Amino acid sequence: MKRVLVVLSLVAVAGCGSNRQMVLDGKTVEQGVTTVLVEKYEIDASDVRCPDNEEIKVGNMFDCSVKVSGQPKKVTLTIQDDKGTYDIGYPE
């Protein structure tokens, strides 16, 4: 199975005081996933939709929906480090 690491530079901070947590910006993740699928995997991918405010926590996994050649699929992302680097699985 192909997998690609993406370093995400745009994150948001949610909460206040000591309960603040770093989260991913969904729109930025969607752009990153689209770029990887099209340029690295050479897939006809469109309509990528990822959840907003996913916590940047090592091992956190979440799915994004995507259309591959017009067919609905999903890709699983896994947070790799506390900087927001994530791994993108191959569409299923």
TrEMBL record:
InterPro entries, alphabetized: DUF4333
Domain DUF4333 positions: 11-84
Domain of life: Bacteria
Pfam families: DUF4333
Protein name: DUF4333 domain-containing protein
Organism: Kibdelosporangium lantanae
